[in-house]
Every structure is written in C-alpha cells, then in structure tokens.
Design goal:
alpha/beta, 5-stranded parallel β-sheet
Length: about 240
C-alpha cells in the first residue's frame, strides 16, 4: 500500500469535510456524559511556523484533542487539504516520517493554494530519533507556512527529542512542549456543571492562575467574592467531587 493511500485513509475529510464527524474519537466524545474539551487546546498558536510536542500518559486523550483541533479547523472553513493527520503506529524511522510529510506536501501542493497547512503527527514517539526527520524537513524549507503538532506517550523520549531541534521549531513566547494530564476537577465541573460552569467562567475560575490565587487566599483565611458566590453550591460540588473520584 502506498504512502498516499495511507494518508487518504487517515484523512477522510479530504473526500468530504463532514466525515470528521464520523471519526470514532469525535463520535465517542459527542456521546460521552462528560464532553471534555481540554483547555490546553487553547494554548496552540496555529498562525505561525511552529513545531509543538504534546506528551502525556496513554489514554489521556491526546488523539481526541488532535481530532477536536482538526474539526475546529474544518468548521472554521480551512480547506480540508491544508490539514494532515498521520498515526505512526507502523512507521519506525526518521526517513518514514520525512517520506510521509513530503508525500503529503507534494500531492496536495496545488490544492493547498499556498495557504498555511496544519500537520498532526500522532504517536510520533514510536519513531526512534523522529526529530532528525523534522530537522531535515525544516532545513530543506519544507515546513515553511506549516504548523506541526507531534504527540507521544513516551514523555521522556519526546521531550528529549524535541530538545534536539534548536532553532528548528520556530519562535514563540509560549512553551512549545505541552503536557496533557488527566482531567482536572474544575474541568469536570465545567463539563457537566451547567449553572456552576457559568459561575466558574464569570469569576475566571477556569483559569489556572486565578484558581491558584483563590487557593492561596483560602490558605490565608480570606475568601474573595468569587469564592463567596460558590458557597451555596458546596453540596452540589461535593456530589460532583464524588462522581469525579
């Protein structure tokens, strides 16, 4: 089977953008009681030439996060051919990675019309020395006008590998190495909480820095207004905590 045939199978939205809705990760998410859309998804800058790494434990939801991002791009009207997803479950060398990306870029060049493309490399940690492939493509200028997200479960390997790409990942004020952890309790409440979700958002309690500030104020025996408004909801929050655990 050719590389391009594999790509067509992994990217059904090239045939019909609506097919992303049939992706099993999206189907499972839509059917879940807890429709969790991790906040880390909001920390990616897709307007620049950057190479992100996204690492975390297995089954934490990295692939689902990637599929959410793909669906969002399609919903925004991005051309389907400007979005590439590939799962590295059988390809094991940097040359494989180079060939996959070059095959995509060469076969969709006219369809992409010079616009930015978004490349999602899933479980890239299965490719030993994968960063060598990225380095080669970057040095050849093949990743110009591209944003790359590479995921992996082997957290040590993907962090060390990404660190071997000095000057070849783009420039950003934000960290390019993302860590995805299991759902936080605040995210769980936001996913199922209804009126409490609105309250959390109103007082910025969905923002990590704000939660830390509120927690510190509690330790100092001070309750600010946002926490005061939550007090009537404590019985419900306790029930949610039991569900969460």
């Amino acid at each position: 089977m050719s590389i391009f045939t594999d790509l067509v199978e992994d990217n059904p939205w090239w045939r019909d953008p609506s097919l992303i809705g049939r992706d099993m990760k999206i189907v499972d998410l839509d059917g879940s009681v807890v429709n969790w859309k991790p906040r880390i998804a909001q920390t990616f800058n897709f307007s620049k030439d950057l190479v992100y790494s996204l690492r975390g434990p297995r089954q934490v939801g990295k692939t689902t996060l990637v599929k959410i991002q793909i669906k969002q791009k399609l919903d925004e009207g991005i051309s389907p051919h400007n979005i590439m997803y590939y799962a590295f479950d059988v390809d094991t060398s940097p040359r494989d990675l180079v060939n996959v990306i070059k095959t995509y870029l060469d076969n969709t060049e006219r369809l992409r019309k010079g616009r930015r493309c978004y490349i999602f490399l899933d479980e890239v940690s299965a490719v030993k020395d994968w960063q060598r492939g990225i380095k080669r493509l970057w040095d050849q200028g093949r990743l110009e006008n591209c944003t790359v997200v590479a995921t992996g479960s082997n957290t040590i390997d993907i962090k060390m590998s990404s660190e071997r790409l000095p000057g070849r990942r783009g420039s950003s004020n934000d960290t390019l190495d993302k860590i995805m952890l299991p759902m936080k309790f605040s995210e769980f409440v936001a996913a199922i909480g209804g009126d409490i979700k609105d309250l959390l958002e109103r007082y910025d309690l969905t923002v990590s820095g704000m939660r830390h500030m509120h927690f510190k104020s509690i330790l100092d025996l001070n309750l600010d207004l946002g926490i005061e408004y939550l007090r009537p909801h404590i019985p419900k929050l306790n029930r949610y905590l039991m569900y969460y655990l």
